[in-house]
Design goal:
GO terms for molecular function: protein phosphatase regulator activity. The protein is mainly alpha-helical. It is 70% helix and 0% strand.
């Protein structure tokens, strides 16, 4: 059911081939370019054909996904129309390994395509990966900063509401997921305003500071200290004062020794 909802989200419950307004002849012409021999590109694009995958190699779609950023770089952004359908087909592949491969490289593809094509063609796929299995989500999480920094400021702010969702994983023992989130949040501090940091990133940081796994907590201490530094440099002193008061109240005066120890580590 989870898989079906993901595919529904990515595909909007419509088949890409039937949704096309092109005739078969126009569809073929839309994939013509002059950078590499056309037969070579046609051979690559045919790798996503389900019949070929079943009869030739079950791993062929994964190899196709792995090579796609290189193909896109070779063809250039002006020929992205040749690869767009293939990319969307791979992004909705039933094998999570194929989607995982794309999730790990979507930030590289965004650099190749530029902000306009990224906003139009990659953001919907990125949003689909955010709701996917943990094995796929970790791909976008590891390069969250790299992808979000390429988006327009307004578009970037929309993801503030979704960062909280990274605290929830398929397996609660997957502490590396939360550790990676803390690492990414340190980088994301440069992309958001003082108010956004205080309103959205601060609650996540405090939650990570109380994590059951020490490795997650250690990274979170650095995150909070960087947050204090960032808010201290802001033009409005209110945010850093409120944050410091909260640190004192929540950790320094905590009735548990571990909470008081956390305060010392953050100060350190």
């Amino acid at each position: 059911q989870g898989m079906d909802s993901t595919l529904h989200y990515i595909h909007n419950d419509s088949d890409l081939s039937t949704n096309s307004s092109f005739s078969p002849e126009e569809e073929r012409k839309s994939k013509v370019q002059d950078v590499v021999p056309q037969a070579l590109l046609d051979q690559y694009l045919s790798m996503t054909d389900p019949s070929r995958a079943q009869t030739v190699d079950t791993e062929i779609a994964k190899h196709c996904a792995y090579s796609l950023p290189g193909v896109a770089l070779t063809l250039g952004r002006q020929n992205w129309h040749c690869l767009k359908d293939t990319y969307e087909t791979l992004a909705s592949d039933m094998q999570w390994k194929v989607r995982r491969t794309l999730a790990f490289s979507i930030h590289e593809l965004a650099v190749i395509l530029g902000d306009q094509l990224t906003a139009g063609d990659l953001v919907p796929v990125f949003n689909g990966f955010l709701k996917d299995l943990d094995e796929v989500r970790i791909g976008v999480l590891k390069h969250l900063h790299d992808f979000l920094k390429l988006l327009h400021v307004d578009k970037r702010r929309e993801y503030l509401y979704q960062l909280q969702e990274f605290l929830v994983t398929d397996n609660s023992r997957n502490w590396r997921f939360r550790a990676e989130l803390a690492e990414q949040l340190i980088l994301l501090l440069d992309l958001y305003s003082a108010r956004d940091i205080y309103d959205y990133l601060r609650p996540i940081a405090f939650s990570l500071c109380a994590d059951k796994v020490s490795s997650v907590r250690w990274i979170s201490y650095k995150l909070v200290s960087e947050m204090v530094k960032k808010l201290y440099m802001a033009s409005t002193p209110t945010f850093v004062i409120d944050l410091m008061n909260e640190l004192v109240e929540k950790f320094c005066r905590c009735h548990k020794w571990s909470g008081r120890q956390t305060f010392v580590f953050i100060c350190q």
